[in-house]
Amino acid sequence: MADNPSTSFRTGKILLSGVKPTGRPHVGNYFGAMKQFVELQHDYETYIFIADLHALTTMQNRQELEESTVGVLLDYMAIGLDPKNVTIFKQSDIPQVTELAWIFNCLTTMPYLMRAHAFKDAEAKNKEINVGLFDYPVLMAADILIQNTDVVPVGQDQKQHIEIARDIAEKFNNAYGETFKLPEPLILENVATVPGTDGRKMSKSYDNTIPLFASDEEIEKAVMGIVTDSGSEVPTNVYAIHSLFRNKNDLEVIYTENKGQYKKLKELLIDDLKNFIKPLREKRQALEEDKSAVLEVLKEGGKVARERAEKKMEKVRELVGLKLY
Ligand code: TYM
């Protein structure tokens, strides 16, 4: 960490975001959010975490959770998050977050949370919804607000969660006095919702992903499986994913030269994906050789984030009437 973060970063502002360790991150996570973490790490005082408590809402398997958590840590470092600039930590190392979430729970009504998209979607699918899943946005508000966050780079699907965090901050501030900053989402328009191999939003739950660290075989299989609309000259779903890797002019040339040749166009996308992923995969493999060094980064980041959170919570406890001595 820099000695005096508030003056060492260009904007003087705080950036925070996270990824849930439920399996392997995909190209949609990367372009929608993770790439921004890397690009902005010099401009903001940056806090990037692994949302392992959020993962518990859908994952009840110790080994899977441990593996995914270490996996996301390796992914973060392989894409270029530098622990010298960024505090990397895991959510469960900051118990103050769950404490704050409880205080927020007591300010948040059930009907308000029932309007959240994620809850409504789960309900529409008749899924059994645990209390943790229902409360998901409140825990997320605590993640964000406890670190005095200014900006939160995310994909479109998290926009409502940032709005909820703002609402909760306002509620607290109204009840107890100015305490929390209102965070802003940072969503890049052209990658707000990266499509998957079937044209819907790329998502693990749709089984339409291209993993960010896919092997060559996985890349081939995923791309060959992209759903193409027969009849049109440009395979829309191939083009949409291809546009993540090449600019419009390049694509214009490629898609004009190979008009109607879906297989060829898919092969060209495979080449681009392989070239993009290979160095990332190699960096990740190298990091994996020394897992204990990588885990040390997480442990140290946890200390830094926890100290900040504790400072904030001391103030919160006092304001709400929990601190008597
Ligand atoms: P998660 O793990 O589902 O996704 C990580 C990030 O990837 C973005 N994303 C996408 N962006 C564009 N196109 C897509 N197809 C796509 N799929 C996923 C997500 O928007 C997200 O930014 N709730 C969060 C984790 C979290 C968090 C936080 C984030 C917990 N607390 C506080 C920010 C701040 C989540 O499950 O993301």
SSE layout:
Layout (H helix, E strand, L loop, with lengths): L4 H4 L5 E6 L7 H14 L4 E6 L1 H4 L6 H18 L6 E5 L4 H11 L4 H5 L2 H8 L6 H4 L1 H11 L4 E3 L5 H18 L7 E3 L29 H9 L11 H7 L5 H10 L4 H27 L2 H30 L5
Parallel strand pairs: 1-2, 2-3, 4-5
The site of tryptophanyl-5'AMP (TYM) has 24 residues, from strand 1, helix 2 and helix 9.
The number of strands is 5
Derived from helix and strand composition plus strand pairing, the structural class reads: mainly alpha
N→C terminal distance: 33 Å
Low-confidence stretches: 1-6
Overall helicity: 55-70%
Query: Under CATH, the topology of the largest domain is which?
Result: Rossmann fold
CATH-assigned homologous superfamily of the largest domain: HUPs
Strand order of the largest sheet: 1-2-3
Please count the helical segments: 15
Task: Please tell me the overall pLDDT.
Answer: 95
Tally of discrete structural domains: 2
CATH architectural label of the largest domain: 3-Layer(aba) Sandwich
Sketch the major β-sheet: 3 strands, parallel
Strand content: 5-15%
Which CATH C-level class of the largest domain is it? Answer: Alpha Beta
Shape: globular
Bound chemical compounds:
tryptophanyl-5'AMP
**What is the CA-based Rg, rounded?**
21 Å
